[in-house]
Automatic annotation (TrEMBL), chain A:
Transmembrane segments: 159-178
Keywords assigned by UniProt, alphabetized: Membrane, Transmembrane, Transmembrane helix
Source organism (scientific name): Thalassorhabdomicrobium marinisediminis
InterPro entries according to UniProt: Phage_phiNM3_A0EWY4
Name used for this protein in its record: DUF1523 domain-containing protein
UniProtKB/TrEMBL annotation, chain B:
Protein name: Cation/multidrug efflux pump
Keywords linked to the UniProt accession: Membrane, Transmembrane, Transmembrane helix
Superkingdom of origin: Bacteria
Transmembrane segments annotated in the record for this chain: 6-23, 65-84
Organism: Thalassorhabdomicrobium marinisediminis
Amino acid sequence: MRNIRRVFRIVLFVVFGLVLHYALPQHDVVRVVNTYQERQDLNDWTRVFWARPDDQSAELINRDVQFIQTVKRKTWLLGFIPRDATEVMVYRNEDTGWSWPFYFKFDTANLQTEADDLVSTSETPKWAVMTHYGWRNEYLSAFPNAIAIRPVTGPDVTIIPWFNIGFFVVLILAFLFLRAVWQQFRERTLDPLADRAGDQMDHVSADLAERRSRWSRWMDSWRSKK
Amino acid sequence: MFIRLMFFGFLGLIVLYAVVSVYSRSVRREKLEDWWEEEPVEGKTREAYIEEGMAAYDKGLRKKLILLIFVIPPLVAGAIIYLIN
């Protein structure tokens, strides 16, 4: 039973982490090579990797999507080891509109123009920081969605992910709050109920009192292990 | 799309508001009980003391601050819309 619960928790944690990794903004140092537009089929499950810019697009089975082709500085290996290498990265450029994930992005055309303006060659590179969310997967034809681009002087810029810092602070606070709510609810509502129920059962028979201890053992399984 | 977001967002905020206000009331009541345990007021029953305290809470600023739950998320969304576009 304990193992099942542990597995369940790990799976939940991993899924939650994956969703956050997909949806939270990340920053890449890029050099824009080209932009293009291509018709995309949207009629299978990989639809989840494309945005829903507006109501009509929800039913379309194909539509034109804008893309930004870049050469990107590789991010630090595992987030710790710097490496001086580049790779290619292609971003899609789609409105997210009023739907998930909630970037409320409506300026796709402007972003495409900014990207066009930053097109450069490897001889005279113009570096920029691309904010994006999503994953690149060649086999599923999934592309990260570009959110914003801003020019920077060189490829060695320090990026502080302010939004993500704030997001995780709020997430931790929300978790602590929910735990406090649950503890309060248990202490003030569930435990008195269980106590009263337990008292009655004590009067009825020792046999039922045994059930009460099972109940409290079950209650214990909700408590944090000390 | 917009209407759907508004609808479910508002629904979520109502649930959050209900949870927070029930929690806040419960904490206040517990505090009043604790204060009574520490220092009972002369010539007043425990129940009356707690009911008075809860009535003061119902009129107080703290309870109205919970209404910020309906204000802050739209402001955050507005800020995101402004910053992204």
